[in-house]
Amino acid sequence: MSLYDIPVQSARGEALNLSDYEGKVMLIVNTASKCGFAPQFKGLQRLHETYAGEGLAVLGFPSNQFANQEPLEGDQLAEHCQINHGVTFPLFAKIDVKGRGIHPLYKHLTKAAPGFLGLKSIKWNFTKFLVDRHGKVVKRFSPTDTPEKIESQIRLQLSKD
């Protein structure tokens, strides 16, 4: 199954498909509004504003699997992130990014780009996956890798065909 075939839902519950982002470089992030890494929303937003015109899509997938740090849902979540962090990039419906109920998107991402020591499981909020214009997962970044730290990798992917 291609990454583009994986069904997702908008924050409002509308059925979507990642094929909407075919031909774009994607930065896929599992987010949580109450996490200590939540200040990264501002950096992610800056990447979105700076590079969307060149083909970058920053995509946030909220998860409540780490210390219940995402209690919000839908419009309430989107509004909170917009007011507190200026987020205008797409935030999707809350999903599981690990465990028995892992969403197919994260099953695909973690298989394609295992983490430290080859471990596939997501360890915390704000793990980031960089996907090239052809849907290939090219790099996984830890929660401590800030948007500013990974910007050069994003620019590199944007410069490729």
Automatic annotation (TrEMBL):
> In the UniProt entry, which residues are flagged as the active site?
C35
Q: Could you list this entry's UniProt keywords, alphabetically sorted.
A: Oxidoreductase, Peroxidase
**The keyword Oxidoreductase is assigned to this record:** yes
Q: Name one Pfam family in it.
A: GSHPx
* One GO BP: cellular response to oxidative stress
The record, for InterPro entries, names: Glutathione_peroxidase, GPX_AS, GPX_CS, Thioredoxin-like_sf
- GO MF terms on file? peroxidase activity
Q: Which Gene3D superfamilies match?
A: Glutaredoxin
UniProt lists the family membership as follows:
Belongs to the glutathione peroxidase family.
Q: Do you know which PANTHER family this protein is assigned to?
A: GLUTATHIONE PEROXIDASE
- Its protein name is Glutathione peroxidase
| Organism for this UniProt entry | Cohnella endophytica
Q: What is the lineage of its organism?
A: Bacteria, Bacillati, Bacillota, Bacilli, Bacillales
